[in-house]
Design goal:
The chain is mainly alpha-helical and 149 residues long. The chain has one domain (36-146). It has 6 helices and no strands. It has helices at residues 3-17, 26-48, 59-86, 93-114, 119-138, 141-146. It starts with a helix and ends with a helix.
């Protein structure tokens, strides 16, 4: 059995055994999501700022890299909007935690990339967070039902 097959079977069992939450507190889940994203990005920016390489770079290059991080920020904002929309409906707790963790990884990577501390590793974390969102979405039965599958 491949590593992916093993991971999918574990996640399938976790999602199938988890009863869905009721949709009585979607605002609380959404607020918690926003707070988690903001706190993760702020802590990451504070931790990575001392390692910034922006001081030794040309100002035009710094502007270009910040513009590229801005584009990634738009992508992350769209992903966060999808997660926020999903939190407005009944969702299993493991799935909600997976969505929250994956979007927080991407938010932390954006703050990391903004400081220009370690661009390759920050990019890997950003795309890893997005890949995590896709992986969690694959196991979210409520998402496929809401999208009309």
């Amino acid at each position: 059995m491949s590593m992916y097959g093993s991971l999918t079977s574990v996640l399938d069992r976790a999602v199938d055994r988890s009863p869905p939450e009721t949709a009585e507190r979607p605002l609380a889940r959404r607020v918690a999501l926003v707070v988690a994203i903001a706190a993760t990005a702020a802590v990451t920016a504070v931790v990575t700022a001392p390692f910034s390489a922006a001081g030794g770079m040309d100002t035009d290059l710094v502007r270009l890299l910040h513009a590229m991080v801005g584009i990634k920020g738009i992508i992350a904002l769209a992903a966060a909007a999808l997660v926020s929309w999903r939190f407005g409906h009944p969702i299993a707790r493991p799935v909600a935690i997976g969505y929250g963790a994956a979007i927080c990884v991407s938010a932390a990577a954006l703050a990391w990339l903004w400081t220009l501390a370690s661009i390759p590793l920050g990019s890997l974390c950003f795309y890893g967070g997005l890949a995590g969102l896709i992986l969690v979405g694959r196991f979210d039965s409520g998402l496929s039902a809401r999208l009309g599958r």
